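Field reference: sequence -> structure
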Amino acid sequence: MFDPRSARIFKIVNIEKSFPLWLVYLLEILSLILFLVFLSLFLFSSFQKSFSPDFNGFLFQRTCLSLFVFGIFFLYSLFFNLKLKKPGIEDPDNLANLLDFKAAKIVENSIHSDFSFNLSLLLNLLSQKELLFCFRRLLLPVKEIKREIKRFQRPREDEKREMETTISLAKKIAFSNQFPRISIFQLFAALTHTEPFLKEILNSFELTREEVEEVTSWEARIKKERELKKKFWERENLARRGGFSKGWSYGYTITLDQFSWEVSELIKVTPPSGIILHQKEIKDLEDALIKEGSRSALVVGEPGVGRRTVVLNFADKILKGKSYKTLNWKRVIELDMPALIAGSRDIRGLEMNLKLIFDEVLRAGNIILVIHQIHNYIGFKFGAEAVAKVDISGILSQYLPYPQFRLMGITTYEGFHRSIGNVPELVAQFTKIELKPSTPTETFKVLEEEILEKEKKTGLFITFKSVKSIIDLANRYIGDVPFPKKAIDLLNEIIIYELRYGRKSPGIVLPEEVAALVSQKVEIPVGKTEEEERNLLLNLEEIIHKRLINQEEAVSEVSNALRRARADILREEKTIGSFLFLGPTGVGKTETSKCLAEAYFGSKKRMIRLDMSEYQRADSIKRLIGGEEEPGYFTTQVREDPFSLILLDEIEKAHPNILNLFLQVLDEGRLTDAFGRSVNFKNTIIISTSNAGSELIRQAIKEGKDLVHFREEFIDKILRRGIFRPEFLNRFDAIVLFRPLAPEHLYKIAEIMLNDLREGLREKNIELLISPELIDKVSKLGFDPEFGAREMRRVIQDKVENSIAKAILSLKIRYGSKIKIDPETFEVLTI
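Structure field:
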């Protein structure tokens, strides 16, 4: 229901119409000016009379009168802004009661317009200064849109239904973002759903309704925070300032104060962001610090997930008095362990100082101690030996059981598993609180404040599309750093990049520049496909066939997968593509993988190759994901180079436990290593090769069967043999059968291999002429029905490359020589 006549807010709008606020402000200023003028004249007159003021005179009376008038207008405007503008909501079913004053005023004007309600509302909203932030972020041309609205005439039809639909949707948007009333920001966001004209405009600028809603919510949050900061009298603002005597009743901490810094004092100077992530974990931290028995917690997470921010937000909460009574207004102090180590003469002195500090914490009773990177000071296997050469676990174990001793340790997953986890009696005293990376939506909110601060310092302007690009590209292409850190780092890098190289639109950061920077970082194409890359993707089969002979089905399957990936038609949790290549030895399975690595990732070197015959034992899993002492070879490789092709050679020889490990990779695009860290495989192509069932493929070719149709029959047969399990095969995007090579294919393969040799010699300025007779001879010598083209590589190496090497060393071939090879004797002949 929408009934403005019965809503109190609309009655106040009508009052403001009769006696507008701008007139009140004008009269307020005029009366203040008159007061200052009369006061100056009165003081000047009194000075001339030797400081004998005439309190009954004309000037003093006019001074008092002007002050009185100013007071009336000032109190009226104050009362209007603080009280009348914010009436209570009497009937929440009436949508009109939910509008704030500004929104109600604009809706009132739109109701009495010549346009339809939605178009009139849109026109009025486009004139609001508060929304200019949103229009600039979205790069919407306000003047042009206004002109188009005035040209676009639509009759007023079913106006009440139109109003109720728009305002009802605005209410839904406001409540979903924790706003108690509907403001102009939610009205504009609602129009993106209900006004077809606005939808067309957004489509022309490639904007979605969700994106508009994000930007309007962003500005609404900024406005809310600014208004809260202005109200210094609010309990929250006063609580952060603190009192004078809260700590007087507690003990002194002389030694602790020398080797620490107070988190609570830092917050008073620079309050943390209004965007609070990990709220559940902060609540768990509070619970851990008041529970019975040991009151200590371990905050575990990868660097960059916000471990320190959790501590800051927790300290801010207790500083405001919003936590449990037993925690409120306690001192949160971080122990500076490096300073303590440097300030102690030896290990014995360090232990004595540490005991003094812990004793002071116990006696004081109002301290929550924080130790950053606590794993560096526990045990000798990891961290302590290299950093401090001291193990404080014994001292900690003495104090942790005391309820008055509250400790927060900050550590990583690796630090926990390799250091703290090796001391079970210590782990039992802590409550473990794990921090996961923030989501892209949460990261966007973190960037909101970061961006405003950076823009103020640099004078740059970062569009909304650029912010989205930063988050999307960081999420997809930066795998070794978690959110929100990787997005913040990328934001800092794009600002530096723009200040140095910005050309397209000086002072404005555009999505294309974000994509260009990420492309430089990861060395693969990012963003909209350029003409050259588009041609490469469309003609990928032809490019691969320049090096691969007689494998049309295989090339077609993988080419289609790459095109889908580059066009972003893929599920985010999956890899770019996963394939199982089946076929005899030497038919081009590995060569196809090399071609793909070069075509998609730009280099054959971007291939991680694992010989799965080396992983036939169950304990070899440590070599993949790591163990107690060393990180895993495989997970480390992918973490360091997440944009790569992974070749799992002879996959059928791996232990079943190893195959189970790859089920998660193929299904979810990630793998958890031995230290609890998630490794991202979303930007990899995974190819597994196997010779299993090669004789079945040969037999099918002899019988003239089409491999595409034979594939189902082939899979059924290898499943019956128990070579692979169904759940393993089902995880692949495609199972590709490779044909055995016939003698007629080997001529082309020999030509490709000899051309590779010619290119290598050309770098030494030696020209090799390749005759058809040489190609024919090499192809005949290199043919082996069992090993395919693999023998040809050996023939070229033994017959051709060895002869050329001897000729170079004997100075028969010099810089700039032209040579050819005798096809019968393989002797090097100079031309």
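Note: The chain has 39 helices and 18 strands.
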